[in-house]
Every structure is written in C-alpha cells, then in structure tokens.
Write a structure and sequence with these properties.
The structure holds 2 protein chains of 2 kinds. By secondary structure, chain A is an alpha/beta fold. Helix content of chain A is 31%, strand content 16%. In chain A, helix 6 packs parallel to helix 8. The model of chain A has no long low-confidence stretch (mean pLDDT 97). By secondary structure, chain B is α/β, with parallel strands linked by helices. The chains are: A alpha/beta, B alpha/beta.
C-alpha cells in the first residue's frame, strides 16, 4: 500500500495501537533541557524509577542561560537552581549533559543536528514546541509537555493519536532576498496560526529540494507556528552529506544499513494526504510581521491589512494592533526600531550569520539600535570566527554574545524593554514574548541586518550589492 | 502522578472571548523557573492580570469579582504556541477544571488531558451562545457531563455534544495517567527497543 513519508516513519514506531485511543509510539532520541524537565525527573523520583534508556537521552542547558560571562556563576538564583537540577538529574540518570561552557553546549535544536543526534527516519521529542526543527532530516520530531517528558524518560514512549497528513508544495524560483524564513512566514500568513492544527506537514517541491539543510531546519522549525505538530522533508543526498561522520550518526556497516532504510523514506507517488496545498515561489517577498502572532505577516512593501479584510475576530485584531501601536493601512517600511535580535533555534545557525554579515559588511550599526547577536551553539560561534564573520560584525559595530535561547523567549536577562520595537529572527511575536511590553517584528536575518544599519524597517534589497542575489 | 477524577462538573464560568490566546499569555516564560509544580496559578495570565508594579488591572476578567467558577471559556485557537505544560498547570492551579473553546492548539489540549483538565471543544455557534448566556448573567452555570460527552447551558437548556477519545475519557473518569499504562506494558516496549537500533 502506498504510504506518505510520515506514515512510513510513524507506523514503524508504533509499539501498540489502542482502539479508539492513541498509539503507543516508541521514541528513538529524547532531547532534554532545563526548563521542562525538572518536574518530570521529580516524577521519576517519586515513583522510584530510573531513566529507561539514558543512551537515547541527551541534555543541554539553553533556555535559561546568560549570553554573557558564561564562565561566571549564574546570578539569577532561580535560573541557577534550575540549571543545577538538570546537571544533578543528568548525573543521577547517567545522561550525557552538555552544560554551560561545554563545547557541545547550545540551543537544543541546533546541537541535535550538529552532533548527529538527528537522523532520518527517527522519532525525536523534546519538551519544546520547536522540536519540529529536526523534521528537516526526514525525522518525525515534535514538542511535548512535561508529563510526556516523564513518560519518555521512564518508558521511552508517548501516547499520541496519529495526526492527519498535509503536504505543502512550493515550486518555482525564489526571488532575490527571499530566505527560508520568508517562505515559512509566507506559508503561515496564508494558513493562519491554526491552519495546520491536527496535521503533520510534509514540505515538498523545488524550493525545499534546493534549500540548504540550515534552511530546511528554519522551515520545519516554524511548522508549529501554523499549529502543525511538526513538519518534515524527505531526506536526500544533501541530508546524508550533512549527517555523515557526525558523532552520533551510525558508522561503518551500520551506516550502510541505515542508508538502505533512509533511501526508502519518501512519500510514494500515489500516497494520499488529508490535505494538500501548493504555492508559487515567485509570490513570496521578504516578509515582516506587524501583529502579535506569527500569522500576522506580510511582504515588507505591503500595508497593514484593514480589520474588515482579516479573517477572524475584529476585536482580537484591533487589540493586537493596539499592543503594537500600529494602525490599519500603514506601511511597515520606514518604521523606527530600537532592537535587533539575530539568533534562536529558527535563525541562529551559521547560514543566518553569513546572511546578516552580507548586508552589514562595510556599513555601520545605527547608533540608536541595540543589537543582540547570539549564535545557536559554540560550534556556530566557532564557525563565525573561522569564516571571518566576527571581524565583519565587529568592524560594523556589532558584538557577538555566547550561545543560548536568549531574547527569543527572554527567560534570561536579554529582555526587550516595554514599548520598544525589536526586529527579531526568532519565531514568536506574541505579546510580551521578548519581555513584558516588548513589541516584536519577526523577519529574516537579511531584514534584521537591514534594520540594524538603518535603524528602521528597511527592504534589504535596497542594501544588497548587485553581486549578491 | 494520578490526578483528580472528572465526572460531571456544574459551575459558573469565566469568559475570555479573545482568539489565539497563546501559552506565553497564559504563563509568561519568566515564570517557568521553578523545579517543582507549585504556585503557577498566581501567575496565570500574569501580564494581562497585573500592571508592571504588580497592581491588578481592573478591567481584566480574572480581576472582576462578578466572574468566577471552575470553567474557563476562551476564543478560537486557545493555547497556541509553546509546549510548556506550565500553562495547563497554571490553569489547574488557579482552580479551573475545564476549558471550553471552539478550537484548541494541539499540545495544550494534550497537556490538559495529561493533568486532568478537560478541554471541551464546541462549535463556534455554541461558543457564542455560552458567551451570550454569561453576558446576560455572569453567574450562569454550565454543566459539563463527561460520561455523556455533553455540555449544557443550564439557564437555557441548550446543549451540545463534544468529542474525546475513549482511552482518554476512561483516564479522566478514573484519574489514571499514561505513565501507569506505559509502565504496565514495559516488557513489550523493551522488546520493541531491542529491535530498534539507536
């Protein structure tokens, strides 16, 4: 029988199907961080049980960590306590733990692929909704709650009803300055933040085939922002090249065996999806958001929609614009901004820093803009140095911080002050997401870079040299 | 950890007719630093509920003494965003046992079911009727009947059925959780794992 990519991976991990209920799904690899795990470990302690498969479990500190002076003790007592809990729990259960300062430390969804924890055909979970990132490798990867973290720690399984399948095709050629982030923000703006709820998405078509692994990660990362449990892309030579030789990927004979399986991971030609959508690449422009959810995005040259033109409640829409202090019908271009944040599991990889540097090279950061440039991991940080990007950033008046989730969710000190505007490469523009009262404009690293040098919302195409297309 | 049993809940409700209420509103990230599941109710809807100087915002519904009860009624796409179970914990810890909406985000719905808060999805029309009934009488009671999978506006007698999978329904009725189930089939899981390379 024909199967979708999603069905192939899901079905091969079902330990038990419960009639009129969920599937018991086996989890190959479990990523753990400090914020959503302590109560789960406490649950294990209360039951007097240990982690069933520590070798399938990996822990890092990222959500709650400072991005400066990581060699010093963490000042915030509650944060320090949470970090200590993860370290102790990892030790007690024999789980590899990559804490602050460790060379493998970084954002959980950046270090998974970097270290080869993420492989095609695997089931991967983490107590974080952006676990969908790992779907870029043809894995089924999704975020879970803390009760489920406890289930996976204790039994390596979770109980989930099987989601429906959706395929999103984007064909054609992307225009100049249109990045994977723009493709994702465009799709979300078309579907709304709940348009894919209940579905697992496969991204297909020319645009994703031509995309780098980093770009695919950005797209899959944002699947949750349209409500999807996760997103995935069929693995290809690019995928295999990326993972080969990484620490936790199979070696020797095991690699060959794995490759045989991985090469079967695609949707069969006549496989049926519950929903299928297609978009043209040429319709996508550099994007920016103007509201308080990631579905409120538009081409950067467009005007903020009128309330009556928007699907959904007018009151909710107006509340959102009021929070942003924007008006219907206004242009986004030219709006002054105060902060720029480059980083997060969405856009904190080397390709994102290359893109940012391509715009700011030879220019200067606008004086009134505060810029936080936060690499997704120490490996990304090392690449930034090796490739000479750090010099370009410093010459333009930028500094590089240490890895972590940082201002994406502002659990640490990296908070955008109330009322200030931040052009941010992260994933959520919810009210207060980047700090109480903060106003977030989601965009690509190119749009963020353009704003950083001009101090206002700027079309990056205006700053791009002819040679860079 | 097993949780409270849920059978029939009769209560007034707190109306929140806003769409896309995300989990960052339900519990902002800066309140996720605890290592125990305690006290999250105090920070439920923190930034909608309190000013930056911690004084209550008087127009927010949770600060309006007219409204109370164990049922929270929200607009479409309730609980979108982050997977933080802390959002469901905050809802529970504040005293809600049931959330009603015309549409729930996936992970939030799961998290609620895993801790014994019942998510009840109704039609947009029925949701409007509930809001209308509460507007007419803030003390208007709803009856959420899990065995019959039915929600009723007691003042008008109008009711609608709701879906829940049979397995989760039994768990909610009996206060069982998934971990108990999984630990009981541990042998099957270990056998499966033995055939699954890392």
């Amino acid at each position: 029988m024909s199967k979708t990519l999603f069905d192939k991976v899901w079905d091969s991990h079902v330990v038990q199907h419960i009639e009129n209920g969920p599937d018991v799904l086996f989890i190959d690899r479990h990523l753990v961080h400090e914020v959503t795990s302590p109560v789960a470990f406490l649950g294990l302690k209360n039951r007097g049980i240990k982690v069933l498969y520590p070798e399938r479990t990996f822990a890092t500190a990222d959500h709650n960590t400072p991005t400066r002076n990581q060699h010093l003790p963490v000042k915030d007592k509650l944060s320090a306590n949470q970090l200590k809990a993860l370290e102790e729990n990892s030790k007690a259960h024999n789980i590899p733990y990559w804490g602050l300062g460790h060379k493998k430390n970084g954002i959980v969804h950046v270090i998974g692929p970097e270290n080869g924890i993420t492989v095609p055909g695997a089931t991967i979970v983490c107590g974080d909704s952006h676990t969908s990132t790992h779907g870029a490798f043809g894995a089924i990867a999704f975020g879970i709650g803390t009760s489920e973290v406890e289930m996976v720690l204790s039994t390596q399984c979770i109980m989930q009803p099987k989601p429906k399948r959706m395929r999103i095709n984007v064909d054609g050629a992307l225009s100049k300055a249109v990045t994977p982030k723009d493709v994702a923000l465009y799709i979300i703006s078309q579907l709304t933040t709940s348009g894919a709820t209940g579905y697992f998405v496969e991204y297909a078509g020319e645009v994703f085939r031509n995309m780098s692994m980093e770009g695919r990660m950005t797209v899959c990362n944002l699947s949750i922002e349209m409500g999807a449990r996760g997103g995935m892309i069929a693995p290809d030579e690019k995928t295999f090249d990326y993972i080969k030789g990484r620490e936790y990927t199979p070696k020797g004979q095991d690699w060959d065996t794995a490759m045989e399986y991985w090469k079967t991971l695609y949707s069969d030609e006549d496989a049926v999806f519950d929903k299928e959508l297609s978009f043209n690449a040429s319709d996508i422009e550099p994007m920016i958001t103007y509201g308080t959810n990631p579905g409120m995005g538009m081409g950067i040259q467009k005007y903020i929609p009128l309330a009556e033109a928007v699907e959904g409640g007018v009151a909710t829409y107006k509340k959102s614009l009021e929070y942003m202090d924007f008006n219907e019908g206004e242009a986004m271009i030219g709006k002054p901004i105060d902060f720029v944040f480059l980083g997060s599991c969405t856009n904190g990889r080397i390709e994102d820093f290359r893109a940012f540097a391509s715009i700011i090279k030879g220019k200067k950061k606008a004086d009134h803009v505060t810029a936080w440039l936060v690499p997704g991991s120490h490996q990304v940080e090392a690449a930034i140095r090796e490739e000479g990007i750090l010099d370009i950033l410093q010459e333009a008046g930028f500094e590089l911080r240490e890895p972590g989730c940082s201002a994406c969710l502002a659990m640490n000190d990296d908070k955008i002050p109330a009322g200030k505007y931040a052009v941010s490469t992260s994933n959520r523009n919810f009210e207060g997401r980047q700090g109480p009262g903060a106003r977030t404009l989601l965009a690509s690293p190119l749009v963020a870079a353009a704003a950083a040098v001009t101090g206002k919302v700027t079309d990056p195409r205006e700053l791009m040299e002819e040679a860079f297309a | 950890m097993a949780y409270d049993k849920f059978n029939i809940l009769k209560s007034s409700a707190v109306p929140m007719p806003i769409e896309n209420v995300d989990t960052d509103q339900i519990i902002p990230a800066r309140f996720l630093k605890a290592t125990e599941r305690k006290g999250f109710g105090d920070n439920l809807f923190r930034d909608w509920r309190y000013n930056s100087d911690d004084t209550p915002k008087e127009h927010f519904v949770l600060n309006n003494p007219i409204y109370s009860g164990q049922i929270l009624v929200g607009g479409k796409n309730f609980g979108s965003g982050s997977s933080r179970e802390h959002a469901a914990w905050a809802v529970y810890d504040y005293g809600f046992r049931c959330v009603v909406s015309s549409f729930f985000a996936d992970i939030f719905r799961n998290n609620c079911l895993n801790i014994g808060v019942l998510p009840v999805q109704v039609s947009p029309e029925f949701l409007d009727k509930i809001f209308t009934a509460i507007e007419a009488d803030p003390k208007a009671e709803l009856e959420v009947n899990l065995p019959e999978q039915k929600i009723t506006i007691l003042a008008t007698g109008e009711s609608e059925g709701f879906d829940i999978n049979g397995y989760k329904k039994q768990n909610m009725l009996n206060g069982f959780d998934d971990i108990d189930y999984l630990l009981n089939i541990k042998n099957d899981i270990e056998q499966f794992a033995g055939n699954t390379p890392l």
